Amino acid sequence: MSELKFPEHFIESLKDQPGFDELKFTEVHKKNNPPTSVRINPNKKTGFANTQPIPWCKEGYYLTERPSFTFDPAFHAGCYYVQEASSMFLDTIFRQIKRDYDAPVKVLDLCAAPGGKSTLLASAINNNDLLVANEIIKTRVPILTDNLTRWGNANVVVTNNDPKDFGRLPGFFDVMVVDAPCSGSGMFRKDTAAMDEWSENNVSLCHQRQERILADVYTTLKEDGHLIYSTCSYSAEENEQILDWLCETYNIESVRVAIDPSWGIVETQSERHKAWGYRFYPDKVQGEGLFAACLIKREPALNASTYKSKFQKLNPKEIEPLKKYLLDSDSLHYFKVGDDWLAIPEVHRDSMIALQQALYIKKSGVRIGRMAGKDLLPDHELAMSLLINEDQFNSVALDKEQAIAYLRRDNINNLNTAKPGWSLMTFENHILGWAKLLPNRVNNYYPKELRILSTEARIKSQEPRQ
Ligand SMILES: C[S@@+](CC[C@H](N)C(=O)[O-])C[C@H]1O[C@@H](n2cnc3c(N)ncnc32)[C@H](O)[C@@H]1O
């Protein structure tokens, strides 16, 4: 057991919290062996040896050991996401409330980078639903877009906005997930450095910021729409007290989530309004600290603004040559950004018009590529997308060594059997990206910014942090 010193006043501040067991909580932090868990992409399935299902998430699994994710091509193909198990509880909440909606839903993930909850939501929604994943901090947007590009869903938009910008879209969303920035105590076991930043004062500052974020974004939720609120903090100020503040400030009701007692999750109620909350303690569940709650807005939203299309009028002749590269190509809306062609399911056309005018969009639907004469210069997003019509492209099956060389953006020659031209590089039937095969060499088009560097830093950064 290693030396462990919690920040001053931390343990005292938790003493009266429901379900808090000081002895067991301290022991589990001393042992410091957090479980490794992954969530499988249901559309790009892959397998792991020796797994155990995570009971509150359909596609979540504990692994008995931590493999080198960096050197696993299936990771880069978007076959799974490395995610802390407690965070996957969103799956239980979302699937439960989704049953109340007959029509397609629009979902906002407000604090989305690096994309753990967004990729979970992308798998839980249907094709006619839409996910908007937003991140306020510009430097954190690329990791979010990369993770969602790998995941492959076409009905996803990534934005880079301040929560108050969503005031331009009153009553737009049916479901809003606010995975708020917090004091981070729930991550102490995995990230002991987080302990240095913890203080009672920081908890109060986080509480104020959480109220501000929720107040800024509240109008974008529809009447009878659901708000899912979560933190990775144990402090009541950031959790149950936020629920009481919401109930006092708005006409909003708490939703009780059905959980199985064997899961070890502690159900709590806020002091004044008895709003339901769900606490994860690492001595009771196989996972890190988390708090989650679900509420439903019971007041009319302001009238939605109307937005007129800014899309260029397109000549159907221009779109025709693109269609063969995509599955379900007649059900898509095509548009151009600069010289690049993009596509999103046609059902989201009006939503795209509103989003384009209200927000700063960083990614929408699938970037297909650009036409050079009659030829398509295909984009990496197309290769990763679930919409790609693979029959239209040559592909080369790489062995593990070649796949890693490709993902490093090294030279990959000796592809003797391959035909010249654009070709998909695959590993065990999973697409990794593009290469252009020339008679005497191979041009590697794997995006430079995604290439494997020799450390594991990139993969670790996929997991949620503050
Ligand atoms: C807990 S993390 C989100 C983790 C993410 N939901 C996931 O599952 O991968 C909180 C996010 O909120 C963002 N954030 C920080 N300050 C914010 C603010 N004032 N408004 C909105 N988001 C903020 C952070 O940049 C961070 O990406």
UniProtKB/TrEMBL annotation:
Q: Mind listing the UniProt keywords for this protein, alphabetically?
A: Cytoplasm, Methyltransferase, RNA-binding, S-adenosyl-L-methionine, Transferase
Transmembrane residue ranges: none
Ranges for domain SAM-dependent MTase RsmB/NOP-type come to 1-298
Q: Which residues are annotated as active site?
A: 232 (nucleophile)
Q: Which GO molecular function terms does the record list?
A: RNA binding; RNA methyltransferase activity
Q: Which residues bind S-adenosyl-L-methionine?
A: 111-117, 135, 162, 179
Alphabetized InterPro entries for the sequence = Methyltr_RsmF_N, MeTrfase_RsmB-F_NOP2_cat, MeTrfase_RsmB-F_NOP2_dom, Nol1_Nop2_Fmu_2, RCMT, SAM-dependent_MTases_sf
Q: Name one GO biological process term.
A: RNA methylation
**PROSITE patterns of this UniProt entry?**
SAM_MT_RSMB_NOP
Please give the family membership noted in the entry.
Belongs to the class I-like SAM-binding methyltransferase superfamily. RsmB/NOP family.
Protein name, per record: RNA methyltransferase
Lineage at the top is: Bacteria, Pseudomonadati, Bacteroidota, Sphingobacteriia, Sphingobacteriales
